[in-house]
Amino acid sequence: MTIFSPRSLTEALQVLNEHPTARLLAGGTDTMVEINFRHFEPGDIISLRHVQELQVFETLSTGYRLGAAIPYKQFENGSFSHVSGALSEASRTVGSPQIRATGTIGGNLGTCSPAGDTLPVLSALDAQIELSSINGIRMLSIHDFMLGVKRNARVSNEIITAIHIPKINGFQGYAKVGVRNAMVISIASACLIHNMDKSHISLALGAVGPTIIRCRTAEKWLTQNADLSTSTALTTEVIEEFGRLAASEALPITDHRSTAEYRKHAVGVLAQRLLKRAMK
Amino acid sequence: MSTSSEIYSLRVNGTDQHVKDAWIGESLLYVLRERLGFMGSKGACEQGECGSCTVLINNDAVCSCLVMAASAIDTDIITVEGLAPSESPNDIQQAFVTEGAVQCGFCTPGLIVAVHHLLETNSSPTEIEVKEALSGNICRCTGYGRIFSAVQLVISQREKSIS
Ligand SMILES: Cc1cc2nc3c(=O)[nH]c(=O)nc-3n(C[C@H](O)[C@H](O)[C@H](O)COP(=O)(O)OP(=O)(O)OC[C@H]3O[C@@H](n4cnc5c(N)ncnc54)[C@H](O)[C@@H]3O)c2cc1C
Ligand code: FES
Ligand code: FES
What we know:
The complex is a heterodimer.
Chain A: E1 3-4, H1 9-18, E2 23-25, H2 31-36, E3 45-47, E4 57-59, E5 63-67, H3 72-76, H4 85-93, H5 97-102, H6 105-111, H7 119-124, E6 128-133, E7 136-141, H8 142-145, E8 146-148, E9 151-152, E10 159-166, E11 172-177, E12 188-195, E13 200-206, E14 213-214, H9 216-225, H10 236-249, H11 260-278
Parallel strand pairs in A: 1-3, 2-3
Antiparallel strand pairs in A: 4-5, 5-10, 6-7, 6-10, 8-9, 11-12, 12-13, 13-14
Chain B: E1 2-3, E2 8-12, E3 15-19, H1 28-35, E4 54-57, E5 60-63, E6 76-78, H2 91-98, H3 108-121, H4 127-133, H5 145-162
Parallel strand pairs in B: 2-6
Antiparallel strand pairs in B: 2-3, 4-5, 4-6
The structure holds flavin-adenine dinucleotide and FE2/S2 (inorganic) cluster (2 copies).
One FE2/S2 (inorganic) cluster (FES) binds near residues 49, 50, 52 and 63 of chain B.
């Protein structure tokens, strides 16, 4: 059992290729809880802390490339808070300042919990996940990356190196229900993105299914029943129907955090609130 | 590039500390307390919820229970012991005493580090900024009122000493 602390991406990919069963360690906020509570017995560990390439942020012609190991605080109110209003709001709801200084989006994707707060945002933005291995780079749509409860499409010799998101002209917002304001895992959450240039609104739900749910039915209905090229206020009927359709697309379960019924109700309300914030 | 699991060194409060015979999965909190003798940081939950283990790593306030110690090589780690010598408390520690913000004291070291970090990054935080900055630190005794008073006392004392 060994810990590797590679100093470059090339080194990291080589070590991972030689030790494909090794656990990648970014912020460690998920992994260390598992280790502290003996839910996970570490074999080899590859620490990504000193891999500078994973901290790099780039502005591209159509959007942004976010290094996978950039911590939440940079998106919350740090240097990159301008890239996506929804990502910034989602980041601000994660854990506590200590967690946000440590935890990373790459780690949120790696864990792939249905309650992961950045995942509805990446889904609503149709983000592309950049996966690297010694064989090269593979780009995967977020919708193909997330497979189920804590399951994703990364193969063992790959590192999530970056997340690509588009620049959006229009409102974007994230809303979450939990038992209190700080340090709370989502009971239900929603992200809404209004792309005025494409006359489209996308909506993704968190914590109400085995993985993030994109509300294709509600989205399609809205395109047919509202002018989305502007942000003019909508009628109450339209807003309510949108919320109802969104709730009907949720597939929640009852667990120790909440009941399926409440979750379904909550995502409907969140969808309505976000739509009202977008169109006014 | 690779570090053997047995020996590594950590820079704690400016001094290199060698960690020997450690198990790789050990948290920084465990290594600080049980292997290096820095008993200031406390462990209550070991899952990032309470903040009693807060330390600075490269000037970020983080939960040391969630940091794999062996991954923290080549970083600057500052514990509560590194903020002031034990015989002469700093102004934050003194304000906690003056305002009665310490009861059982278990949360106090983590809070001192969190308040220190807040005031280093923002010397005149609003009330809501103070609350947000301390939202990762749980105190079961005080009800927080006296903690917020202590922070206000430090802010006003520091403002006075500048003007
Ligand atoms: C107290 C507390 C509160 C929390 N609150 C929230 C919350 O409100 N919302 C929320 O969404 N989450 C929350 N979390 C969970 C956690 O903080 C997040 O999931 C975080 O994003 C994990 O990132 P990390 O870098 O710390 O992950 P790590 O623990 O380092 O990694 C997590 C997983 O991802 C893999 N991984 C990491 N980086 C990569 C990469 N670049 N390529 C491939 N695989 C990778 C790891 O191998 C591991 O399997 C909380 C955790 C704690 C302890
Ligand atoms: S012991 Fe680390 S946060 Fe509670
Ligand atoms: S003084 Fe006892 S927990 Fe804060």
